[in-house]
Every structure is written in C-alpha cells, then in structure tokens.
Amino acid sequence: MAAITADTLALPRVKASSLGDVERPVLAISTAPAGLEGEGFPVRRALAGVRYEYLDPFIMMDQMGEVDYPAGEPKGTHWHPHRGFETVTYLIEGQFIHQDTHGGGGVITEGSTQWMTAGAGLLHIETPPEKLVEAGGLFHGFQLWVNLPAKDKFLAPKYQGIESGQITLLASPDGGALLRVIAGEVDGYRGPGSTHTPITLIHATIHPGQQLSMPWQAEYNALAYVMAGSGTVGEERTAIHAGQLAVFGAGDRVTLTADEKQDSRTQALEVILLGGEPIREPMVHYGPFVMNTREELQQTMLDYQSGKLGVIPPDAIMPHVPRGH
Fold first, then answer.
1. Which of 9, 16, 57, 99 is the residue whose CA sits 20 to 30 A from 80?
2. What is the value of pTM for the model shown?
3. Angle subtended at Cα 12 by Cα 9 and Cα 16, rounded to the nearest 5 degrees
4. Is 235 a residue whose pLDDT tops 60?
5. Domains of the chain, with CATH numbers?
6. What are 277's strand-pairing partners?
7. Rounded-to-integer distance, Cα 106 and Cα 183, Å
8. Given this model, what pLDDT does residue 1 score?
C-alpha cells in the first residue's frame, strides 16, 4: 500500500494507557456493501447500514477501489453539485484532478488529501488525468462526507489541498503502528486539516502481531474501518477484517490489534479511524445535498436547477476519453 511510510522509531509516540483510562467497548461490526459511483468506479460504502446517531457528524464514506485498471479504463466523476457539508478525498494510490466553480482545484496525488467545503453550494469534478486514463494503473482512496451544522450550511465554499508531506506522523507507544493524522488532535498533536465540524481523521498501519492503543477524545464518537488486513478491535478482541467497520461506545481510549498472519497480499492491518463531535440536529440527505429539513432540500433542488449552485466554466476540465473510444 503506497500511502506515506516512515520509521516509527524516529516519530513522536502517543501515550500508553494508564490507570483511569476508559476503554471504548465495541458496539457493532458491520460489513460494507459494494457498488459503483461516478462514471462507474467501484466503491464500498463503509458506513452503510449504521444508525446515524452513531455516525453523526459523518454522512458517508466510500472506499474507492482498490482496483488495477487496464489501459483506457480509469474513471472518476463528471460535473456534479454539492451543498450543506464537506467532502474529504484521501488518495492512497493513483491521481485525481479536481476543479470547482469557486476556483478551487488541483491534482490530488498519492498520500494527499483534498478538503472541500461545499457550504452554500457549488459544482465540481474529480477525474483521473489523461496520462493515467491512457496508461491504466492502480487506484485506491477514500471519500468522506462531513456534515455542517445549520449555522454553517451556507458558508462560502472553500478548498484545501493537504499534501502528503504536511500530514502529522505519530507512532503507537511501542512503535508497532504508524499514525497519519490528517485532521483533528491526538494526544496533543494536530493534523493539518482545517475543519468547521470538530473531527479526527487518521490512517493507521498496524504491523502483524502489534497493538495500537491510543487516547481518544471522550466527547467524540469513534469508528474504525478496515481497508486491508485482519485483526481485532477493543479489549474484548472482537474479530474484524477488510471491508468491515467497528462502532465503539463511550470512553477515552481505543484499541486495535493486527493478526500475527495477514493474507498473501497484505503486509499490515490498514485502518481509517474516525471521530467527531456530534451535531445533534435534524439531517435530511438526498443525493449530493445534506440539509436540515425537507423544505431546504426542495429549495436546494430548485436552486441547482436554476443555476444558483454554479455553472460549468468555459475552461472546464472534462473526463478524458481514451484513444479508440
């Protein structure tokens, strides 16, 4: 897996457990269903089937790939709208080019993150560059949707490009796990992502037979999605494997352990760790719009149809059509 790597022996370490820490119990394990998104790239709906009270403020998260495209086959999305939340795209392998109607955009490369605050609304596109479409290749990443509270639903749209070298790197207490902190705070160390809704987003690699036990903010929820490998979660050591999500209960510490033996194509237990401060407001979700009431959704549809969420610019990036198609 080509995400950022580092020598954990040289990194700051999160503190080990101590007397008085409250371990978060595992409430549920769910398995992500598979589907297609955009122009037809395969995804796994990591948060599907979990009650929103356990997810709040997260709306959805798609694991995009992992897929090794033949030449001419890489796919992305066409121009489409968003309103009322933030999208976070984290790439592990491959590339995407992005453009939106508020001037945001750039190339998302391996290990980098694109953070887009849709707020009051915009149109955007995410598509692989021409060179990657023509050559094919490995593609793997995640897109997370983070809700905005009612007071921030109509913020002016904003774009953040977080390069791989900006991500905060930490190690577990014994150095057996690498933590890539994209956003939020872990044991006093902050990731570079600037968030309207307080959250923590981490990509953790736990080496075979090793355990990650780390402090977690008590007022946040806690979710762990396994993108590769197998292991256990919680002190009760509940089994979990690739494509599954663990929902944790209350407490101030989370624990995950990698199995001694991983499958032939997996070198470690790879996990996306999520936590956020629940917004606890009504939420209605229809396609690319996340609002507080049905009336707001209806108005958003009218605004989109009348061009108030933006118009595709004359210099717009478009999905590359490979030669011979």
1. 57
2. 0.94
3. 95
4. yes
5. 11-304 (2.60.120.10)
6. none
7. 20
8. 58
Q: Omega into 57 within 30° of 0, i.e. cis? A: yes
Cα-based torsion angle of the residue sequence 16, 22, 24, 27 in order, rounded to the nearest 10 degrees: 160
Mean predicted confidence (pLDDT) in 30-55 = 89
Q: What confidence tens digit (pLDDT) does each residue in 62-109 have?
A: 999 888 888 888 888 899 999 999 999 999 999 989 999 998 888 899
SS3 labels along the chain: CCCCCCCHHHCCECCCCCCCCCECCEEEEEECCEEEECCCEEEEECCCCCCHHHHCCEEEEEEEEEEEECCCCCCCCCCEEEECEEEEEEEEECCEEEEECCCCEEEECCCCEEEEECCCCEEEEEECCHHHHHHCEEEEEEEEEEECCHHHCCCCCEEEEECHHHCEEEECCCCCEEEEEEECEECCEECCECCCCCEEEEEEEECCCCEEEEECCCCCCCEEEEEECEEEECCCCEEEECCEEEEECCCCEEEEEECCCCCCCCCCEEEEEEEECCCCCCCEEECCEEECCHHHHHHHHHHHHCCCCCCCCCCCCCCCCCCCC
50 close to 245: Cβ distance less than 8 angstroms: yes
pLDDT of the residue at 325: 57
Q: Measured between alpha carbons, how far is 33 from 24 in angstroms, rounded to an integer?
A: 26
Structure tokens at 264: 């032939």
